[in-house]
User: Fold these one by one.
Assistant:
Number 1:
Amino acid sequence: MTAYTKLEDHFRRYLVLGQAEGVLHWDMSTVMPSGGSETRAEQLAVLKTTRHALLTGPETADLLESAAQVELDDWQRANLSEMERQWRRATALDEDLVEALSRAESACEMAWRGARPAGDFAAVLPDLNVLVALVRETAAAKAEALGLDPYDALLDAYEPGGRQAEIDPLFEDLEAFLPEFLGRVLENQARRPAPVLPPGPFPIAGQRALAHEMMAALGFDFDHGRLDESRHPFCGGVPEDVRITTRYDENDFTSSLMAVLHETGHALYERGLPPAWRHQPIGLARSMSIHESQSLLIEMQVCRSRPFLAFAAPLIGRAFGGAGEAWDEDNLYRLLTRVEPGLIRVDADEVTYPAHVIVRYRLEKAIIGGTMEAADIPAAWNEGMKGLLGITPPGDGDGCLQDIHWYDGAWGYFPTYTLGAIAAAQIFAAAKSADGTITTEIAKGDFKPLLAWLGDAIHAKGSVLPVPELLTQATGRPLDAGVFKTHLEDRYLA
Amino acid sequence: MTAYTKLEDHFRRYLVLGQAEGVLHWDMSTVMPSGGSETRAEQLAVLKTTRHALLTGPETADLLESAAQVELDDWQRANLSEMERQWRRATALDEDLVEALSRAESACEMAWRGARPAGDFAAVLPDLNVLVALVRETAAAKAEALGLDPYDALLDAYEPGGRQAEIDPLFEDLEAFLPEFLGRVLENQARRPAPVLPPGPFPIAGQRALAHEMMAALGFDFDHGRLDESRHPFCGGVPEDVRITTRYDENDFTSSLMAVLHETGHALYERGLPPAWRHQPIGLARSMSIHESQSLLIEMQVCRSRPFLAFAAPLIGRAFGGAGEAWDEDNLYRLLTRVEPGLIRVDADEVTYPAHVIVRYRLEKAIIGGTMEAADIPAAWNEGMKGLLGITPPGDGDGCLQDIHWYDGAWGYFPTYTLGAIAAAQIFAAAKSADGTITTEIAKGDFKPLLAWLGDAIHAKGSVLPVPELLTQATGRPLDAGVFKTHLEDRYLA
């Protein structure tokens, strides 16, 4: 074996152990009884430190050095570069920190599960303080090893190459654009008839059957994946076995259905990753913003569009035995594109969603930068919401406790949601302009032209290209908010 | 840290990674879509080799030697001895063999899943030949390292200290006893009215609710465990999160219910293991025969007894809205203790069950001993069944393909079923003679006196004692078939 093929074997083991960790996470979120939490935390801590040790052993550095000397093709070269990136990030941390962080994440997440329904931020604060201290330590260690600002060092784990220096102007642009735009959208919306929610209840069995039908139409392969239930919808698993989840509300089928369509977008990306590079770093999804672009492209760009509803409205009516105006395409379209400032990020429309992200982004930069403490989060949160959306949460349950991210250790993740929304608009526009049949086929329930284009331009690329290059090859330019804004204007001011 | 505490930390990691492997197995058997098989095989192979490397590193040998020099209490001493046992077994194999075996097990099991419904032994034979060659290689390597006969070296993994030299006379005794005894049982049974299966169908929701009710009555804690469905019932998980499974037949509730009660016996053992020794070798269940003794004690000794049915018959009737003679205690007792030679081990009554095990035990000894090849299994199987039970399977699906064990690599496991049946009778008799209220309380649906006794005598002992010593302390003597035979005579010739 050459140094390079030894590295491939090494990283295969590393990534496959990470897949095992993913199975444990899926299980924890969908089926694990509450009493299993502590043992599961132990299992995750041991798996994480075992993986860390595998990557940071003395052999890896030597192999990386040797492999850099030999002739490699473009994909191998990109793979080697991703290996080095992952190795650098791992060696920045010692094993004790990896273990302490894993345990603190599990403990804080457990505390949060109790604190959230009670809206009791004080109950989670002691665990959160421990976690924040370890996250800061992690950020500092990675910052030093990678020569980055601490926040960027965290962000880089989710968004390789992502930097505040590029996000800040994008977000400032949106902050300047959105408040005034929102006012015009609400005015425009007020001139149209308000949509009505079709009369429920919507039995869960019917919602589940409809979800399966829609997933199948989009190309989800149930021999290679599942739909289950969890408190928060997510997509997990591996390309050969993609696991998505949703949660059902008998009084409103739209929230569950849109979650399913969103997660199906993630799942289709995973399924389309390059099979020749399974269990290798470049075989993985490129970044969290690109992942989110694929889920939002399906959910926001496709499934909340008129062409999609031409196909879907009759299926929705049939699923619940409904007929009449409330079930027609036009009402459903207005229902699924209704704009309304609200407290909850995951329920937000695409016009107000960036504000939710910007609030979180500011706060997490301040926390990681050390200019704010965890105890100050509730007040800063409420102030941010008031400033950006004009509303104040009545309690922390609908405020700073609503998302799991900070409490399970995902600091530096939030901006990728809005980067993904911007990318989704840019990518979908490029797809439609490359293949004029995409929209007309969607109206017939045929997603193959769209998926074929996405497969080639995004999915099958894995991580072979940096994000700006991937976007440039797919859409003609790196990320900018232009198409996103045009999309919002077209949809909400028409 | 002393050498001993370092070893505790080392084995904690090793065992906790094994738990992660257990989660992957549970998932594979209950929810994994078929397309996930290959990736799952990869995950299991990597986890197994990673665990193997953890145990066989140079440090472990030194630590074991140092720890043997220092003062330890009895439990620590026993723990150290179990560590050494596990280390010796692991170091007998090199990593390539561990990986090859894991992959061959996954491949052969996958082939078997297709071959079994089709009854097509030829379809699984190529994979089985590969697997048998690797199992023989494993047996030879372990035999050499441990100074054991190759079959004993495999058996010892499931039944520490178990040897053919002790099993053979026990099984010969049963072989001499059972055929004549079976004749008398069938004669006796013919003189009583034949039981009737209460009229079905039995909706699965009702069977599931009844199973939950019975499990709760027995003390199964649903905050620390689950009941799910799988092709073959099993008990997996960890003491804090015990996962049992069953499968439902709408035409017969007894098979599913008895499987649930059997697996609940396994689960209660796991739940009762000593919490102070979690993630340590002596904190684990003692052996497969002791595990099976706990499941059979609950299923066969308790739940197929008259006192249990005094409690359970009304619940069963209520679960399915049934009333009348078919649902009464007396009919259900005759139904659940009906003896009838059949083809399928898992459906066998306790009188004919040992014959199923003896057929398999003979064959696996011959295969491991090299006097028989995998290709000869179907003919030898049919001959064995004809000789011991007087019946010949119409095809391999109901013959040598019926059990997963050989096809997923569990060679040397089968005798523990009958050792467990013998132990169950011996342990239950000791429990009843130690506490006269056990039987009367069972009739009222109160299992606490039984569980308290089992908890002290068996469960909380973990692996601190060798099997013969555990049985001697609990029942006054090591394993012998006397009480088992008396139990059969009392129940089936009364």
Number 2:
Amino acid sequence: MSKKSKVTPWEVEIKDENDYERLIELFGVSKIDDNLLEKIKKHTNDLHILLKRKFFYAHRDFDKVLDSFEKGEKFFLYTGRAPSGKMHIGHLIPFILTKWLQEKFDANVYIQLPDEEKFWAKKVNDYEKIKELAYYEAKIIASLGFDPNKTFIFINSEYIKNLYSAAIYVARNINFSTAKAVFGFTGETTIGLIFYVSLQIVPTFFENSYPVIPCGIDQDPYFRLQRDIAEKLGYKKASTILSKFVWGLKGPYTKMSASDPSTTILIDDDFETIKQKIMKYAFSGGQPTLELHKKLGGNPDIDVCFFWLRVLFEENDKKLKELEESYRNGTLTTGELKEYTALKINEFLEKIRKNMKWAENNLHKFMYDGKLASEMWNWKFEPKV
Amino acid sequence: MSKKSKVTPWEVEIKDENDYERLIELFGVSKIDDNLLEKIKKHTNDLHILLKRKFFYAHRDFDKVLDSFEKGEKFFLYTGRAPSGKMHIGHLIPFILTKWLQEKFDANVYIQLPDEEKFWAKKVNDYEKIKELAYYEAKIIASLGFDPNKTFIFINSEYIKNLYSAAIYVARNINFSTAKAVFGFTGETTIGLIFYVSLQIVPTFFENSYPVIPCGIDQDPYFRLQRDIAEKLGYKKASTILSKFVWGLKGPYTKMSASDPSTTILIDDDFETIKQKIMKYAFSGGQPTLELHKKLGGNPDIDVCFFWLRVLFEENDKKLKELEESYRNGTLTTGELKEYTALKINEFLEKIRKNMKWAENNLHKFMYDGKLASEMWNWKFEPKV
């Protein structure tokens, strides 16, 4: 990593693509290569855009999980998000892939909403508000179309009694120096956040089969620790499918910050807002004037609209290639590109808007009384040792 | 403290009475003096032997709590014990005083059984067994005669959802360096034990009035931390009533270890066992031979039987004085003293044995559906800020 780059679940700084390569070495994970994609495709027929375009670019043991799957052994999916009440389009990414994998592999999905994490990390100050907002986020996530009988969405503080039955074991098997080495804890770290490590690991023990975790690569440290203790407790080591980080509107390798509208498209944004934000803020690879643009052409590689089209919103490879070419040769203007991108993003969010009512009506199944959820409210950890 | 003396909740070493004096300075607590005892007596008429003989020898703010009580402000009592399945007579001491205070001040009592603590401290290895045994210990504690409608006994892993609503706040307000300074945590400390600090503090917020905590002085560090954060969360600073440590059978300032029969009288021991253990193991202040004893007399100050008679089993001051005198002048032999002590201990334990059936029948009230317990299963922390 470049000296200024940092990656813990609470501090993420990536400066360029090389940093992503170095993370692979640093964490000891594998690249998602065409061999793995072919292996996936054997079961799924097609490839999700997030895999095809390699926004999920690294993994741990997913090849082994697929080998087992071929022998008839199922796996389960687990992901999550610390609620804050403001979700942007980047936040959806792990859920989108998870939903697709659920469908293709008929897998149970567990979604953790750790309402205490950001409060303990001192990233938010009003816990009661966060807790309230967690239900809203649960609805947004559900609206992606998860199976309400094969998906369990839980808020940590609600589900803590069940989680605790395993956290008692997990938190015994991790000592402070290990946690410190992995997460960079300091004297200032709250004793809550130190313990939280165990709570993010617990759901990997919800079933005896392989846990597969689609998530940002910054979350990998939790699951490295999981792999140190899983077999000792009689469970399987976690497999991760790891994504890069999305770009904020301000340009390559900037962040979307839900609290700064000039950087982000929120799930709640309507079409007008999306369009205005992109027109006004989205960093462009185009030239300063229309005249120059038509003459010299633009650079899609550093353009935020192209980033989002590539990663998520333009599934059609041919169409994407055409757009890139016409941008490079100056026939596609920045204004046109922005308009198109706003339309594509809106098209995607429109599906969520339409599903929100369904999600609201079915939330009780995801959280409390669907087939999987009702089983999980009786779940209790049993170490298999 | 002498250099070798250590006091944290997990490491206790006291070499002599001076160490107790130094602890008072080190912790910044106050001595329980005759003024305070008089102040207590105003409300209680008599004084419990554990106070009168000053085995509870230090306190924090109990004088202020009594001042408030005189103005009509109630307080509540809180104590507890990490279950291990083997309780010795020393373990009863905080509960005995707590029960007496409940009766005299008509106070609610909260008793925490943290089933995870010793597992996280790596003092026990079989968590499931400990959890099972916790119910047995709850019965023993209840058998001391607590009021089943004013006493709530809870096992942490059962009651965690309620505890967690406050632990979220407590664990945010304590950082690692503070916890380390107070408890001497190292890199080897499990992340569970670090978090546990918050769980022992939580019950001090069960009511808005003063929490009063009778406990061994080794537990004071938790409540010093509590005092740093209580008012910030809108609650009252904890008051502690602090005891010395009991002597094991092997002699002055040794420990009772439930796992070593030669050091300890267990609650389960029958009269024959008690007598045999005392005869065989109890360190004596008498002379090596009966002849010498009759000639030179014994020393009650270093005698384990006298320790226990003074602290708990001989309430009659006059009788105790007579015993001491006749031991010093050699007319009371070690054999007679041991026999008498065994009888007194047995007399005390017989009350517990007799009450066990009642405790068993009423345990549900203490734990689940008595007046206080049923209220507490609906309790949720509300920071008053």
Number 3:
Amino acid sequence: MSVEPIKTIEKADMADIALGGAFLGTGGGGDPYIGKLMAEQALDEHGPVRVADVDEFDDDALIMPVAMMGAPTVMLEKLPKGTEVGTALSSLEAYLGAKADAIFCVEAGGLNSTIPVAVAAATGLPIVDGDGMGRAFPELQMVSMTMHGLKATPMVIADDKGNSIVINAVDNLATEKFARVATVEMGGAALIALYPMRGAEAKKAILRGSMSLIKSIGRIIDAEQAANRNPAQALASELNGIRLFEGRVHDVERRTEGGFARGSCEIVGLGPNDGASITLEFQNEFLIARRANGKPLAMTPDLICLLDLETGQPITTEQIRYGFRVIVFGLPCNPQWRSDHGLELVGPKYFGYELEYQPIEALNG
Amino acid sequence: MSVEPIKTIEKADMADIALGGAFLGTGGGGDPYIGKLMAEQALDEHGPVRVADVDEFDDDALIMPVAMMGAPTVMLEKLPKGTEVGTALSSLEAYLGAKADAIFCVEAGGLNSTIPVAVAAATGLPIVDGDGMGRAFPELQMVSMTMHGLKATPMVIADDKGNSIVINAVDNLATEKFARVATVEMGGAALIALYPMRGAEAKKAILRGSMSLIKSIGRIIDAEQAANRNPAQALASELNGIRLFEGRVHDVERRTEGGFARGSCEIVGLGPNDGASITLEFQNEFLIARRANGKPLAMTPDLICLLDLETGQPITTEQIRYGFRVIVFGLPCNPQWRSDHGLELVGPKYFGYELEYQPIEALNG
């Protein structure tokens, strides 16, 4: 796909960014629509945000992602207002005794692809054209920074009541565990700033071009929708993606557990898939798609995206309802995730599935 | 009771301090015996600890309690070694950018009456002759400092693996909740430093004379044991206490839940209480003693202490076993706890009992 690098984000860009973020959110990360409203308001008030290539920064620049952590269903209910959005960032800056030179998105999907835009606008900081996942994942150690040996801590987690916590942990999995119980105690969602890193580290660790990719995906979906075409075909050809299944949502099971939205949904085939059915399982994000006989169609870390069958609009796990007519769309993950270390962090076994990872291209070859 | 103020703690004092701490631990706070060994080792290595009246410090001195937090059963398994014991204190000092002038015991019972002695010896700091409870209580907001409007935060919680967390919370109950889930995540027990306060605040908020009282209680128990007398009689007359019940432990039910040791024990009467039975319920500490008909004999915040019927040795909730012959001993709490604010913090309703607080003297008058 030819992705045009973006240099600024203006209010008019947010519709595409929210759309692209919803797609790469792979069902999780929360509906970016509300984050979009927050970002639009901040852009209105403070002007456009500069998007910078990570190479533009000095090796000793201070760069860190900001995000919202929690079960997406709860995140939507607990969205920060106005200046609150920068609370975790400013607390981490105070703890470090240094100001950030840039921020970035910890994940390229969902709310967390729009909330950092609001933070960047409110603080006047540039946003790096990159992220830590190339998609959305449910846990904070599941980032390219972990693969590159960077520590998530010191990390700040803050809520809307004025509580804030600084975590220093021995490794990123321990950080996730401490932050997750704190998030639950904060009511299920909280603002975070973490992985404070130097420019030199960011240049190695960040997955590049994510903001531009999100924008491009959003633009494709938007253009196809405007032409009354389902975007699935264009997305498949542009993104090297695979139309996995078409059908109707027959059953959804959903629970908030351990600070995550977990569950599954059964889809009964339509059109080319008439007579078949598949099940999608999720922990915030879709993790696995299986046929009725248990055979996998796609599995984490490859991307599983759910789109409306008519409009191509991405559907998050909390939006799924009985009767929805949908396309299940698969996309190969960033190649770094297919390394041994990558699969240790985000492969099916980490999530408790007794499955060897198989690339989506091999499963659907 | 005529309590002789102590000015130093030497190795030879630790036996009495552990005994007195076990008594005021009211069943909780962990067996001080292991904390005693830690303190003895530190006193051996670094020399005696100075015990200071809080009035000896400047109004702007930095004073804070250090403690171990968690389920007593787990605390005993996770006791810190050597220098580890000062981890939370030094992390909080680093966060505050200032050195402590003195430390004190957050509670006058159990492990937390001996661990701070080890910290004082290792750091060379004096220990204030006072504490925050006048006994042991299970939660960190249950201290005189809360009644005097002091904040528990910034608070550090640290484990033996190198994880540490700084909490800044809106109130002390929120601090307790964040610290409790972090403690559970740290394996059930952790070192803490909290309530950093100025000398002027300490002079108002600390319950005075606790170290001296602990030592005196220990001395009485020791002297009576040496004379082959049960210390209950001497303790009752010296401490204005009440022998509530004598009997044999018939049943114990114990579980670790939400980071606490919870449970109950049934005691069937012997001697003067033949034919009767009572139940003690605990959350780390004994909270309520009831007759078989449900009528209370004593309730929190008054002290309920369990002693061996023959030796008068205090028995912690985790030591109780079927068949133990015991005396249940009651003691009026510090009068501050009987205020409205005090009862809100530690009265029976806070712990879920639908009971109006009645002083132990009234229940046994």
